[in-house]
Amino acid sequence: MPLWKRLFDICGVLILSVILLPILTLTALVVLLRDGRPVFYISERMKTPDQGFQLVKFRTMRPDRADSGVSGGDKAARITRSGAFLRRTRLDELPQLWNILKGDMSFVGPRPPLREYVQDYPQYYDAVLRARPGVTGLATLIYHRHEERLLRACTTAAETDAVYRRACIPRKARLDLIYLANRTLWLDIWIIYRTIFRRKPRRKA
Fold this sequence. Notes:
mainly alpha; 55% helix; 4 strands
C-alpha cells in the first residue's frame, strides 16, 4: 500500500471515530435491544491471495451456522428488523473503521472477497488483491446496484453462488484493475464523495 494511502486512512479513521462515536454507540444499542446478541457479524475475508483477516460489521441477519457464500435473495428472510435499514444506509459497515486502523483494509479498494473465491479464481484475485481491500471502491460505485439486483432474484444458495461467479466476479475484477492502474489520492477522494452522495435511481412513473 502506498504511504500516502495509509496516512490518509489513519487520519480519516481518527477523525471519523470521534465524529461517528455517538452513531456507532446508538447503532450498537439498537441492534442489541431490537435483535439481540451478537451485535457484530465477524467473517473471514482476504486481504492478499494467501492472507485472511476478520472483517467486522454490525449484524443484519439472524445467525445461521450453515451460512456460506455471498448474500442473495435466498437469505432475505433472515434479515433482521433493523438489518434492512442498516444495509440500506450502509451503517452496518461502520465497524470496518477498526479493520482500516489495523491495516486490514483501506477506505477505497476492491471489496474483500471470501477465501473460496480467491482460491477458485486466482486469474482475477492475484492481481486485484495487489490493492488493499476497501469499504468502497470503483467496482462498488459502478456495479453494486446491478449486483444487488442480480443476486436479489436468486432463490437458492446454489443459484446465488452461480450468478455471483458468472456475472459478478469477472466484471468487478475488471473495474478493480482499472482502479489499481489509476489510483491516486484524488481518485480515492472522488470515489468516497460519490459513494456518500450517490444519487438514487429515479423510479419510472
